[in-house]
Amino acid sequence: SSSSSDATLGAGLVPLVNKLQDIFASDAMSGKRLVDLPCIAVVGSQSSGKSSVLEALVGRDFLPRGPDICTRRPLLLQLVHTPAARDGPTEWGEFLHRPGDMFTDFEAIREEIEAETDRTTGVNKGVSDKQIRLKICSPNVLTMTLVDLPGITRVPVGDQPPDIETQIRNMILSYIKKDSCLILAVTPANSDLANSDALTLSKQVDPDGLRTLGVVTKLDIMDRGTSAVKYLKGEVVPLRLGYVGVVNRCQADINDRRPMHEARALEAEFFRSKPEYKDVLKHCGIKALSRNVSDLLAKHIGNLLPDLQARIMDRRAEAEKELAMYGSDIPETESERAALVLQKLERYAASLQAAVEGRSTNLSIDILEGGARVHYVLQEIFVKGLLELDPTATMTDEHIRTKIQNTAGTKAVLLVPEEPFEQLARQCIEKMLDPCKQCAELVHQELCAMAASCVPPEVAQVYPHLAQAVEKTCKEFLSKGLEPAVQMIVNLVECQLAHINTSHPDFVGGPAALLQAQKAIDARMNAEAEEAAEAANKSSKNKGVNKENADVVSGTIQKTSQWLSGVLSPSKRHYSIENGTVKLKEPPKKLNANACETNEEFLQVMVTRTLLGSYYRIARGILADTVPKAVMHFLVNSVSRGLRQHLIGVLYQPGIMKNLLMEDPEIAEL
Predict the structure, then answer these.
(1) Which parts of this chain are annotated as the region Disordered (predicted)?
(2) Which residues, 6+ apart, have CB-to-CB distance to 411 below 8 Å?
(3) Which residue(s) pair with 95 in the sheet?
């Protein structure tokens, strides 16, 4: 009684399931999360008799035929039992891709399947996983839904890729792996059932055989003296749903267009004439298969009904929430449009301001976003990067000496030269201009990214013109803020260049620089002396103290004294002494500054380096503090000061609001 009730309930729901399948297959549901609906997938190797089984269930010839692969796209076949009509056609087919076109000629159905297949896969045996959906209404069928899948093949033909077998197997598995799918595994009787391609695939996803019904075809061409009784009894490969044996029409019957009712009569005669099939007769024949499949599907739907209803209700709730997000119908009057546009603009401006200030709802706990990213750019990227920039570190003594001599011109160099220090300081300060401007540009990019992300999804989907206009107008506003920010940064750097303030309280100053330079000279002299003493001690231990060692010590000290006194001869001389007179030479085109030849010259380089490093650090600290302030004032804080007014001034105009509120055509159809 329970089984009968489930079957009745399931049978009544099959047409409803078919309707849901049509809805889910429509273009409007493209890309949506769908519900897996109950169905029966027909699986078998090429030439297993799969197409003949389906045609026998329908009672008509309607599937493509040929020596090679015939089913090249999944065919979802909805069979609907309909009472015979007094007026109009008794049997007809209808394709989902051609709604309203009634096919009463089943040969035309075959041609349309072939044509629709070729439209997607081409004419040279290509395959595709895109479904063809066909509904057949007839008083001669039982209500059921089947999916005819491409036959398993191993050898590519035509335009088929080398991995065609893998592609087809993956396509089949994508259907039969779902618990909502029953499996009709078709195997010819003249093959080894234990090695059946269809049963091998079904075992991968249904190892206990709870969803698989075996179909053994071509019983009439088995070797004489053999039968498929053990197959049908489940003694070779057990299946919980069992097996059904059928006799297909032979190729000659197909070519001669033998009517289905005659083929069924011959099938019934075959089983009556074979006493070995007496015990399994209820599992033999197309009628038994049709009743079995219809009952199984009805019961399957009945079993899945509670879960199916829950999943459909969940999906409906999601759809209703999505629809509510899109809002009500588009306003018709000018005042309604104005009110809606003003509302969207104010909400957008408030949303962006909240994002900048860190007041957005549902802030992430995984990544930085909004204003936190701006702060990261200012402090972690700009300030830390600027504080690591030190052009003085790569400036050699030769560079400084060259600058000192160049700025002196024809004059001798004073003890603490001022002009080379100021020129070198300006060169170092100028190197900070580019990273300072890049700071403003990076912040501008972050704000533009926030401007795009703050457009609500429902506005972008329902009113794409408004969403695009809001984002574009906001970015134009931000670009206008970038210009004064960059200009202010340029002015800040130019202020540092305009006046080298040696009176700054943190500046080291001349006397202190001289003291540091003298300490550097003393440290270097001490190091040289210690090196000489160490060499002397080592020699003393090896050979004893004698006059020769004393000469070594004396020579080392003399060399140190020569370095300190700056009496080292230049490596090149542009003059020569000949015959008691001096002969001068023309200086080379590229003339380098002389090395430090006196204590005074070495002191000049050391003092200049000390002053330069001190002043550069002061200027760098000032820019590290003032540039972020300029960016915040002119660019970031402008969002709260003037974005709302700018949006309203540009977009809240009577002449453009109607166009801004034009709905997306696809959304309007919902």
Answers:
(1) 532-553
(2) none
(3) 134
CA–CA dist 570, 574 (Å, integer) = 10
Of 280-289, 418-427, 527-536, the poorest mean pLDDT is in: 527-536
- What is the residue type of 77? L
Mean pLDDT throughout 538-550? Answer: 56
End-to-end CA separation in angstroms for the chain: 43
* pLDDT computed for residue 347 by the predictor: 87
**552: number of CA atoms within 13 Å, CB side?**
17
* pLDDT tens, residue by residue, 215-259: 999 998 888 888 899 999 999 999 999 999 999 888 778 778 888
Within 13 Å, how many C-alpha atoms sit on residue 116's CB side? 22
Q: Give yes or no for a contact between 633 and 491, defined as CB atoms under 8 angstroms apart.
A: no
Residue 69 identity (one-letter amino acid): I
* SS3 category, 59: coil
Structure-token pair, residue 561: 């004294």
Identify whether the C-beta of residue 187 lies closer than 8 Å to the C-beta of residue 49.
no
Output the DSSP codes for 560-587. HHHHHHT-PPPS--SEEEETTEEEE-PP
CA distance 383 to 388: 9
> Is the pLDDT score of 5 beyond 50?
no
Calculate the average pLDDT of the chain: 81
User: Collapsing DSSP states into helix, strand and coil, what is residue 502?
Assistant: coil
Q: What are the structure tokens assigned to 627, written together?
A: 């540039």
Reported as a single tens digit per residue, the pLDDT across 30-69 is 545 567 888 899 999 988 888 889 989 998 889 887 666 6
Residue 364: strand, helix, or coil: coil
Is there a contact between 421 and 609 (Cβ–Cβ < 8 Å)?
Answer: no
What structural domains and CATH numbers belong to the chain? 40-316 (3.40.50.300), 335-502+616-669 (1.20.120.1240)
Query: Given pLDDT bands bounded at 50, 70 and 90, which one contains residue 605?
Result: confident
Phi-psi region of 221 (alpha: psi -120 to 50; beta: other; left: phi over 0): alpha
Whether the Cβ atoms of residue 226 and residue 93 lie closer than 8 Å to each other: no
| Cα dihedral across residues 58, 60, 61, 63: positive or negative | negative
For 290-315, what is the HEC assignment?
HHHHHHHHHHHHHHHHHHHHHHHHHH
Interhelix angle 464-498/599-631, rounded to 10 degrees, is 150
| The pLDDT of residue 318 is above 70 | yes
